[in-house]
């Protein structure tokens, strides 16, 4: 990481963003820009050396002020895949247009490095496995499409303007501060909330679809490395565990870890836009970033449960925030 300025994490109060902030803060001061639409201020409370700026990446004046003097901009602000199903235009505006606006400000300010955090959803369903960075990109949702547009803009600003950019594609992060609530809710925390309330995990589809889960601290290390590795500039790099598991197997693993192996999954129709298979090849991350995952899925789930215990999570309250069909508009 450059020593000539403070790194900025856009979306730093979010799930992956706050893990990245913790990682960077161990090395020095960090600035965060977040509008708290999905992130939470408490995610970075108590982290030493954090300067918090509340505002939207779509507000050019706020974004410019936050980016001024920043050595490296890590762009993680996003609206998620389920949100895109019920509000595709707003999803595109944040994920694609917002990225373009940040890139233009970065060009204006002469930002030393711009790290765009994309998603494995840009690939769509695996056509060959494991999926390296040359795998076709055929996203199933507007979220995946908008994130792919953000990637294209990021690469274009490197090619056209010489802006030092890196694109990171994380696969299925999970861990402390992950979302169970609303349209941000993800499968592992949702399974845990239901198990801790004595309810069966809900599986959409036949449960044979696979995902590649990476513990969030591992994801954060990979993203941070993209901010400093000399050979990363201009590259697009996967950050995934390199292991796949079916959602059915995942449900068994989570319910057992939560002390409720008796809870058999409850099956519902497929979610719209779901991909069938994700399975990463992260060899490039090992070569260029010196990165490899360290935390197994079993250990990571145990750590997540321990974190909830340390926080004294109110499981009934958490269940009230959970939305089963979280791709549909509420109300």
UniProtKB/TrEMBL annotation:
Alphabetical list of InterPro entries matching this protein: NAD(P)-bd_dom, NAD(P)-bd_dom_sf
Keywords associated with the record: Lyase
SUPFAM superfamilies, A to Z: NAD(P)-binding Rossmann-fold domains (SSF51735)
Span of domain NAD(P)-binding: 8-303
Pfam families: GDP_Man_Dehyd
Protein name: GDP-mannose 4,6-dehydratase
E.C. number: 4.2.1.47
GO molecular function: GDP-mannose 4,6-dehydratase activity
Organism name: Pseudonocardia humida
Enzyme class: lyase
């Amino acid at each position: 990481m450059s020593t000539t300025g403070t790194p900025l994490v856009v979306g730093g109060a979010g799930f992956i963003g706050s893990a990245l902030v913790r990682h960077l803060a161990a090395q020095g001061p960090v600035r965060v820009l977040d509008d708290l639409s999905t992130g939470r201020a408490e995610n970075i409370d108590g982290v030493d050396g954090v300067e918090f700026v509340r505002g939207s990446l779509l507000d050019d004046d706020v974004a410019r002020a936050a980016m001024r003097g920043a050595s490296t901009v890590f762009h993680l602000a996003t609206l998620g895949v389920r949100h895109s199903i019920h509000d595709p235009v707003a999803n595109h505006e944040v994920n694609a247009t917002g990225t373009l606006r940040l890139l233009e400000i970065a060009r204006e300010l002469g930002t030393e490095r711009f790290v765009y955090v994309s998603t494995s959803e840009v690939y769509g369903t695996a056509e060959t496995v494991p999926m390296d960075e040359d795998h076709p990109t055929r996203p199933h949702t507007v979220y995946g499409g908008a994130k792919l547009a953000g990637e294209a803009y990021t690469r274009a600003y490197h090619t056209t303007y010489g802006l030092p950019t890196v694109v990171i594609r994380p696969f299925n992060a999970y861990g402390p501060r992950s979302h169970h609530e609303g349209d941000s809710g993800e499968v592992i925390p949702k399974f845990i909330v239901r198990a801790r309330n004595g309810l069966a995990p809900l599986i959409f589809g036949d449960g044979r679809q696979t995902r590649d889960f990476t513990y969030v601290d591992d994801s954060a290390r990979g993203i941070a490395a993209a901010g400093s590795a000399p050979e990363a500039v201009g590259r697009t790099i996967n950050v995934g565990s390199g292991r796949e598991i079916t959602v059915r197997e995942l449900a068994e693993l989570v319910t057992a870890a939560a002390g409720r192996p008796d809870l058999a999954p409850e099956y519902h129709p497929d979610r719209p836009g779901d991909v069938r298979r994700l399975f990463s090849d992260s060899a490039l991350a090992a070569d260029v970033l010196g990165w490899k995952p360290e935390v197994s899925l079993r250990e990571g789930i145990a750590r997540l449960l321990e974190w909830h215990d340390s926080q004294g999570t109110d499981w009934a309250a958490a269940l009230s925030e959970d939305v089963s069909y979280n791709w549909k508009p509420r109300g």
